[in-house]
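Bumping with the actual sequence this time:
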Amino acid sequence: MKFFTNQLIKPYILESGYQSLCEIGAQRGNNTDEFLQVASLVIGIIDPCLDADLGEKYRDNNRVQLHKGISLDVLPRISGQFDCILIDGDHNWYTVYHELMTIEKRGLLKPEGTIFLHDVCWPYGRRDMYYQPELIPKEFMQPCKRQSLVRGQSEPHSPNKHAETFSAVHEGGERNGVLTAIEDFLKENRGEYKFFYSEEEHGLGVLRKTTSTIGNKIFNKHLRRARYRSVVPRLNNVTKVKFPALYSSLRELRDKARRKVA
């Protein structure tokens, strides 16, 4: 995620003149620390603080406000509007779809605002992941277990009792995955948003609620960059799945070249 924070989100924030960010899913605050380098940015964090005591970490920082709790509990009662929102919490259809719907219905995103969403590509673009499966209504749950995933295989590679999260047993289908949630949200809000995603580093989606020419220029500029940068990951993925022996040979050559440079 640090790649997207520095290569896409921070430049986008600066070019758009944004001054407020809501970060859904901060974990240990690593991305928050990067965002705080933008001197004009005020940050609201939504996080249950299972990984770190963010309240203690940012206790003396008046540019950070912590809303401790899960997103679907906090978003219905949080006040104010944000220039941009980063969604990087529970990567499943139910959570992401209802986060987006709540943001829209409550008007939490300012006009010309942007929503950034992490993990819109493999493995969770079309496959639900659950940190706490017990929080998801059963009718929206995919059959899931702790397992290892392999790109190009819909079925799980093998059970993994040491995995930190639960993943849907099958990839694809209705109400399954982050990208599917975004697409379903866009169907409900036709014409209200522009959307693109970058395929690097498990994918970052960009939703902009825009009507202005300036806003469209910024959006389109980063859209073109994302399309250009996505060519290499696509070739990598095709080679890995279709030509595994060639892929392994190329990786070995790359690693040897890196060792020589080091």
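The tokens above came from a reply further down the thread. The domain at 2-129+171-229 is CATH 3.40.50.150 (Rossmann fold).
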